[in-house]
Design a protein that fits this description.
about 325 residues
Length: about 325
């Protein structure tokens, strides 16, 4: 029995007029019964929640390690809060992954073998190392007293590896998603990892700023503002790259996906940046504006990941998206790889 071929029509020119400045390669060929070419992931709230917690905790460890290595007593609270936040995030992240895998045995099995060609295996090693070093750093913090030299030595020994594995926690989840065949994730692998990393640093700085005094809080606000601005630029670059490869951006998908994407951008980028700028102009309102900005960054980072997961799965269910991506790669540099 012959296979029925369903023709996919090219969208009208008006629908892509806003992309006229970019060389767009949209697929305008056949598909098999209009069925998806690749399977959408089964990732849900447990996984995108993990990517949020993993990034935040990893960046918090970086900030804590830098604050500790500075040797300034004024950074003691930032160091303590960062270490405890990192350990809490590592524990919560592992619990979310085990819950998603449905059984601890799958987690244990991933620890048995290290495959340098497997993003999931690398991610498991990073998470395990991060949890271990974060636990030692938090232990040194908890028992740390002026008369106990071993706690200071332990803190110094674990600071660098904890920060390095924390850096891995901020971006490896983006690389893990980009290694799949999901069109919207595979289109811009470097940009996706960079977006996750910038969001991780912004959310960690925002979370730590909520418990800081004016001096350290101001430094954390500046870090959060810089990371948020970088995330906004990276997001715009990723959307432009997706359009150039003939993919439908999250903002152009169904109403729920477009709304979630818009809310993530405005709540996570527009509102915080406006508050940080106003705080610099209105010192009397800086404290209140800083709190509003921090809450916006934290909520926006969570929504950004939810929107990326939703939009990615939507793109996997549309055969034209995957076929557009593979067609674009044949005549370009590989979609940002």
């Amino acid at each position: 029995m012959g296979a029925e071929i369903v023709q996919i029509r090219r969208p009208p020119a008006a629908a892509v007029s806003h992309e006229s400045a970019v060389a767009v390669r949209r697929y305008d060929g056949p598909s098999y019964y209009g069925q998806p070419t690749v399977k959408a992931s089964s990732y849900g709230a447990l996984v995108w929640g993990y990517t949020y917690i993993a990034g935040l905790s990893g960046a918090a460890q970086i900030i804590a390690s830098i604050a500790d290595l500075s040797g300034r007593s004024a950074h003691a609270r930032m160091t303590r809060n960062g270490r405890y936040l990192a350990l809490a995030g590592a524990a919560a992240g592992a619990a979310l992954l085990v819950a998603d895998l449905h059984t601890p045995k799958r987690w244990y099995n991933m620890l048995r073998i290290f495959r340098p060609t497997s993003p999931m295996s690398i991610g498991t090693a990073i998470l395990s190392g991060f949890a271990g070093f974060s636990g030692l750093a938090a232990l040194a913090q908890f028992f740390g007293q002026p008369g106990r030299r071993w706690t200071r030595r332990l803190a110094r020994v674990t600071a660098v590896p904890a920060a390095l594995t924390g850096a891995g926690m901020t971006f490896y989840t983006g690389a893990l998603l980009a290694a799949t065949s999901t069109p919207l994730w595979a289109a811009s692998p470097r940009l996706l990892s960079a977006r996750f990393a910038s969001s991780a640093m912004a959310t960690a700085a925002a979370a730590l700023s909520l418990a800081e005094n004016e001096g350290n809080g101001g430094a954390l606000d500046r870090l959060a503002a810089l990371s948020t601005a970088a995330g906004s630029v990276l997001s715009a670059s990723a959307h432009a790259n997706e359009s150039s490869q003939g993919l439908t951006r999250a903002s152009d998908m169904d109403a729920a996906t477009a709304s979630e994407d818009a809310l993530a951008r405005h709540l996570g980028h527009t509102l915080p940046l406006a508050c940080y700028c106003l705080g610099a102009l209105l010192p009397a309102r800086r404290h209140t504006l800083s709190r509003i900005a921090a809450l916006g960054v934290l909520a926006g980072g969570l929504l950004m990941r939810a929107a990326i997961f939703r939009a990615g799965n939507q793109s996997a269910r549309a055969p034209r998206e995957y076929l557009s991506l593979t067609q674009a790669r044949a005549g370009t540099d590989g979609g940002g790889r």
